[in-house]
Write a structure and sequence with these properties.
The chain is elongated. The protein is built from six helices and two strands, in the order αααβααβα. The protein has a two-stranded antiparallel ribbon with strand order 1-2. The mean pLDDT is about 75. It has about 120 residues and is mainly alpha-helical.
Amino acid sequence: MAANLDKLVEELSTLSVLEAAELVKALEEKWGVSAAAPVAMAAAGAAAATAEPVEEKTEFDVIIKDPGAKKIDVIKVIRQFTSLGLSEAKTLAETPGSKVLSAVGKDAAMDAKKKLEDGRRPG
C-alpha cells in the first residue's frame, strides 16, 4: 500500500499549479466535498517532500542592540562603516534595534560586529 501512495505522491508532485487546481475541482465535483483545507495541507506536504535543501544565508544585517558604556567609540565605528554624519551616527547608536549595515556579506558583518563589540567594551 505504501508503494502505491509513494507513486501517487510522485505523480502529483509533477503537476503544474493549473493542473493541480483542475484536479481539485474535479475531485470536489466527483465526491461532492470542498477540499480547501485538506488540499492546502496536501500541497504543503508535497512541497516539503520536493523542497530543495535550504541554501546558506549569504546576506546579513548588522543591528545595534545596546551601545554599551563607550558610546563615543561605537559612534566612531558606525561612521567607519557608513557615510553618516556625527549626529546621524549618534542617533543610530542610541536607538536599540537600529540597522548599521544591511544585506552585507558574512565577512563584512562579522568584522562590523567585532569592531562594534570592541568599541562598546569598557576600557
